[in-house]
Amino acid sequence: MLDTVAVENYRSLRRLVVPLRGCNVVTGPNGTGKSSLYRALRLLADSARNGSVNALAREGGLSSTMWAGQGEKGPVSLKLGFAGEDFGYAVDFGLPIDGNTAFNLDPEIKSEAVWAGPALRPSALLAQRGGPTVLLRDAEGDWRPAATTLRPFDSMLSELADPQAAPELLALRERVRSWRFYDHVRTDSAAPARQPQIGTRTMVLSHDGADLAAALQTVAEVGDSRALTEAVENAFPGSRVEIRSSDGRFEVTLRQPGMLRALTAAELSDGTLRYLLWAAALLTPRPAELTVLNEPEASLHPDLLPALAALIARSSERSQVVVVTHAAALVEALRGEQRDVNTIELTKEMGQTAIVGQGLLDEPSWHWPARG
Predict the structure, then answer these.
(1) Which residues belong to any copy of the ATPase AAA-type core domain (predicted)?
(2) Among 49, 40, 71, 3, which residue's Cα sits nearest to residue 158?
(3) How many Cβ atoms from other residues are within 10 Å of residue 173's Cβ?
(4) C-alpha distance across the termini of the chain, in Å
(5) pTM above 0.90, yes or no
(6) For 329-349, what is each residue's pLDDT tens digit?
(7) Cα dist. 232→48, 49, 246, 267, 271 in Å?
(8) pLDDT for 215-267, tens place per residue?
(9) What is the separation of C-alpha 342 from the centre of its chain, rounded to a whole number of angstroms?
(10) Residues near 229 by Cβ (< 8 Å), separated by ≥ 6?
(11) b/e 335-369 (16+ beta carbons within 10 angstroms → b)
């Protein structure tokens, strides 16, 4: 489980060190940095797949994503990191060195570090990178250079995660790759979730929800079928989900009291379909180490928010959850369902995102690795 996420110089996140618990809610007015924090988490996940440089380039490069406030000195630096009880990781992006290339928007990875435990200390370092060179600490505590030098757009998490040479990097990489993000899953009339799809056992709902029917059937057969029944009952009293199968194609239907037939996915309202998507994602038989939901309340009727909060609370018993939301009603419903909800309320002061009520002494301990 993550205890801390840290971001420096990303959009309005001049310096933000966020404490995390099992169930976390990020909230605050529009423009306070909620989406930036969500994107920062995605960038960290991308680093384990060698995708963070591409993701930053798609946002326009460092010039478009860097903190734009006054008082900046020294080299351009965008930093991202996280830590838990067992491992920590940090990466530092900078401007590319001038050269004969058309990829001028690609930032470069200037440094990376992996350490044991919740805080970066020299004695806890397991791997450190400066430019193309990576040093690995062996079982005797001695440093040795990695056999491979890295290109400026490659992360050591993706390139050096070897079970023999760097087992800690491999373990950390696989954990980060297990993180799941759900962001505005489609529910429009042409949404994949509304169409019959070839059905196979689906332990994890896809990012676009195309395999919703198969995911719900998998929950019913090999997951917590009782929780699925309760989730549907809480949201739509007297209703039940039925998965229609024809020639290997699965389709979601919802049988409701007073209706002569079950409604197909094509007939469901956006809010009803979205709720079923959240049920499939959160009741997965294969929970992730971290699940991040961005504005899950979108399209939902306010009456559905207590049922959604119950779903999220149940999921947080098996997976660390971060919910980014505008809805105060969802925050209150979560507090009613889960006593240990960590509410992270963001505000903006002089263009800089801050956590409401967090003073310097309240901020988790965090240190960035130096550039090599």
Answers:
(1) 23-331
(2) 49
(3) 23
(4) 29
(5) yes
(6) 999 999 998 778 999 999 999
(7) 35, 35, 23, 17, 13
(8) 999 999 999 999 999 999 999 999 999 999 999 999 999 999 998 899 999 99
(9) 16
(10) 240
(11) bebbeebbebbbeeeeeebbbeebeeeebbebebb
Residue with tokens 């980014």: 324
d(CA 317, CA 329): 21
Domains of the chain (ranges; CATH) run: 2-179+347-355 (3.40.50), 187-270 (no CATH)
Count the neighbouring beta carbons within 10 Å of the beta carbon of residue 227.
17
- The size of the chain, in residues, is 372
Which pair of tokens denotes residue 92? 């530092």
Q: Could you tell me which of 194, 192, 180, 207 has the C-alpha nearest to residue 272?
A: 194
